[in-house]
Design brief:
By secondary structure, this protein is of the alpha/beta class. It has 14 helices and ten strands. The protein has helices at about 5-20, 25-35, 50-60, 65-70, 90-100, 135-145, 155-160, 175-180, 200-210, 225-230, 240-245, 270-275, 335-355, 360-365; strands spanning about 40-45, 70-75, 75-85, 110, 115, 125-130, 130-135, 150-155, 170-175, 190. A six-stranded mixed beta sheet has the order 2-3-1-4-8-10. Strands 5-9 form a two-stranded antiparallel ribbon. The chain has a two-stranded antiparallel sheet with strand order 6-7. A hairpin with a 2-residue loop joins β2 and β3 (about 75-85). Mean pLDDT is about 85; it is low at about 15-25, about 320-345 and about 360-365.
Amino acid sequence: MPISRRKFLQFTAGGAAALGVNLFDNPMLRKAFAGAIQETPIIWLAAGACSGCSVSLLNALSPRIQDVLLDQVLPGHHLELAFHPTVMAASGDLAMQAMYDTEEKPFILVVEGSITTADGGRHCEVGEKHGHGITGLEHVTRLGRKAKAVIAIGSCAAFGGIPAANMNPTGSKGVMEVFREQGITTPTINLPGCAAHPDWFISTVASVLLGGPESVKVDAHGRPEMIYKKLIHDNCPLRGHFDAGRFAEKFGDPYCLYKLGCKGPVAHANCPEKRFNSGTNWCIDNGHPCNGCVEPEYPYDQTMWGTVPIKDATPPSLYPPIVTDMKTSVDVTPAYAALAGVAAGVVGVQVMKKKPAQGEDSEGKE
C-alpha cells in the first residue's frame, strides 16, 4: 500500500522517539518534520457578541486551551489562532494585517456573535480602512467565501440570539441566514449555546480536521448530532418529579422546574453529561431552569421564563397511569385486552397441568 511523505515522516519520528534517537539535531530533518505537521489557522471574528463564548473556550479543562493552541489537536494537525480580537497581542493595523495575511491561506472561520445587517451593518464594525470602519457583515461575507469551513459558535452566531430578540432594530441574524441571502455555500456548522461549551468547539474542530466538514453529521438546524441529538429532559435529574407531577412553584423548591420556565423538554444538548465550569455544574444542578439557549427560538418571544408546549415528554398510553386510583375500572384498550388474554392463557395452562386425569381419584381410593 502506498504511503505519503507526511505519513512516512510521522511514522519515522514515532519510531525514533521510541528508540530514544534525537533526529532534530539535524537541521534538515528538523525542517522536514516541521513540514509534516499540518498547520490550520483560525480566524475568530467577533461580531455582535458579549465574548462569552471566548471566555468559555479559554476555560477549557481537558484539553486546556494551552494544549489546544500549542500542541497537536490531532496527530499531525496543529491549530493556529491567527486572529482573535479579544486575546491576540497585536492591535490596530498589525491585527488587521494578521487577518488579511491569514485569509490568503486555507483557514477555518469561527464567528462569535450575530451579524448586524440594518443600515448596511454599521452597528458592528471591526477595524477600519481608509478612515472608515469595516462592518462585521463585510468581513463575514468576504471571509465566508474564502474559508474551507465556518463554525458559528454561540446562539447569537447560530440563530441571531439575544441581539435579534423582540424588535431587532439592528437587523441581527445568524451566519447561516446571512450566507443564504448572499449565496455563500461554504460548509457551515452551528454550535449554539449561551455560552457554548468549550468541548463542543474542540470536538467539532477535531472532526473537521480529521474528516472535513462533511464528516460532521448535523441536524435540521445545522448542529452536530453528536452534541445536540439528546433531549435535555431525558437526562434531567429532576425528570422523576416531572413524571410524578411534582412541580416547583418558586425558586428553591426541590421539584421539576417546568412551571418556572424550564425549556428542558424542548432543548437538545448534552449539558447534563458535560456540565460547565470545568465539569462541576450546569443550570439544573444550580437550581435554575434550562433556558433552552441551544434552540433557534432563544430567547423566546415574551420571556425566557415562560412555559413552552411539550411534545413526546409524557409516558406513552401503553404504560399504566402515573397516579392510579384503585377504584378505577380496568382499562380495556386493545393493548391491555391483549395482555389480559395472554395472562389468562398462561394461568389456564398451569391449571390444566395440575388437574388430575378423569377417574384418577376413584382409582386411587379403590
